[in-house]
Amino acid sequence: MTDDIWRFDTLEQGAVFGPVTVPLDRERLTGWDGVYGPVIGDLAPDGLIVAGMMEAYIRAIQPRPKGNVHAGQKLSFTGAQARLGDSVAYTVTVAGKERKKGRNWITFAIHAQLAGTALMRGEVTAIWAA
């Protein structure tokens, strides 16, 4: 894009960003442990996959305007699990756009996969500031 930020009018429905790879490495696990306590065993908790989803969203959708509002999210897990040390690939897609009550609403679909196996599907709905 030629603009300094991505605007509602220029983000196209169906646009795909990614994959963004997020390793479930020692750095992320240390952050997780600091908030939730140590992980027992080698399976990554679902919440760590969700944290990776948000990291992937932030990295993929750049440059964003200041003032966006995270208005909601939905999550659906497949039952497949990742292990600590795995790298999860996230793909972010513009799933929907609409103007409501003078605001720009965008829904992003985010899929998490490990070696081609779906781990999670999520949606992030944002009120887009520009």
**CATH third-level topology:** Thiol Ester Dehydrase, Chain A
**Overall radius of gyration:** 16 Å
Stretches where pLDDT falls below 50 for ≥5 residues? Answer: none
Q: Helix/strand-derived class?
A: alpha+beta
Which oligomeric state applies? single chain
Coarse shape: elongated
Number of domains: 1
Largest sheet entry: 5 strands, antiparallel
H/E element sequence: EHHEEEE
CATH architecture: Roll
Write out the CATH superfamily name: Hotdog Thioesterase
**Strand-residue proportion:** 35-45%
| Spatial strand order of the main sheet | 1-3-4-5-2
The chain-level mean pLDDT equals 94
Please give a structural write-up.
Helices cover 20% and strands 42% of the residues. The chain has a single domain, classed as Hotdog Thioesterase (Thiol Ester Dehydrase, Chain A, Roll). The protein has helices at 26-36, 46-60, and strands at 16-23, 69-77, 87-100, 103-114, 117-128. A five-stranded antiparallel sheet has the order 1-3-4-5-2, covered by helices on one side. The mean pLDDT is 94. A hairpin with a 2-residue loop joins strand 4 and strand 5. It contains two helices and five strands. The chain is of the alpha+beta class.
Main traits of this protein?
130 residues; alpha+beta; 2 helices; 5 strands; elongated
Topology:
Layout: E1 16-23, H1 26-36, H2 46-60, E2 69-77, E3 87-100, E4 103-114, E5 117-128
State the gist of this model.
The protein is of the alpha+beta class and 130 residues long.
